[in-house]
Amino acid sequence: MRKRIITFIALAFAVFGLLGSTAASASETGSEPAGVSSLTELKSGQVGTLASEEIDYAVEHALTDPTKYCAGNGYVSGCVQPYGDVLWIKDNASNGAHVTLKWEDLDGDRYGKCRNTLGADAGWARCNKDLPENHRIAWQLAYKVSSGSDWSYSPVYETRV
């Protein structure tokens, strides 16, 4: 009887050990989509159902000290602040067009936009979100060169919150 129990335990370790290493190697070999130029393109390849888009209007606020991950150009600057889940957006051009920080939770089903309609004179503005801890957030800045032009987009960035 003791020999059967030891054999069963050894077999269980072999099976569960094999399954565990297979799962680990599958997640290690996974990769992000290559050549993604916009969050719309990123979402179109995603399996599953996404929640409704969350659209927030940024509120003017002085840029604060906690660590942020930022990007920008002559038309827009934006940051994702993991501590506090704050999205920062600044209009850098007095051209009559608003600017947007588009975001998507890559580990969940939420996505949305933080819009700054305050204009370049307002300075920094923020959208305060409540995002799940330790999730990867893909984000991108959207801007217009002039109020009548088409939207232009920054590269897609990724920040863990």
Features of the shown structure:
single chain; 161 residues; alpha+beta; Immunoglobulin-like; six-stranded mixed β-sheet; five-stranded antiparallel β-sheet
Tell me briefly what this model is.
The protein is of the alpha+beta class and 161 residues long.
What does this structure look like?
The chain has 161 residues and is an alpha+beta fold. It has one domain: Sandwich (Immunoglobulin-like). Helices cover 21% and strands 35% of the residues. The chain has two helices and eleven strands, in the order ααβββββββββββ. The chain has helices spanning 2-29, 39-44; strands spanning 54-57, 59-60, 69-72, 76-81, 86-91, 99-105, 111-116, 124-128, 136-144, 151-153, 157-160. The strands form two sheets. Strands 1, 6, 7, 9, 10 and 11 form a six-stranded mixed beta sheet that branches. Strand 6 and strand 7 form a beta hairpin. The radius of gyration is 22 Å and the shape is globular.
**Mean pLDDT, rounded to whole units?**
77
Number of helices: 2
Strand runs, count: 11
CATH third-level topology: Immunoglobulin-like
Question: Helices and strands: which structural class?
Answer: alpha+beta
Contiguous runs where pLDDT drops below 50 for at least 5 residues: 1-36
Order of helices and strands: HHEEEEEEEEEEE
Proportion of residues in β-strands = 25-35%
Query: N-to-C terminal Cα separation, in Å?
Result: 53 Å
- Rg over CA atoms, rounded to whole Å, is 22 Å
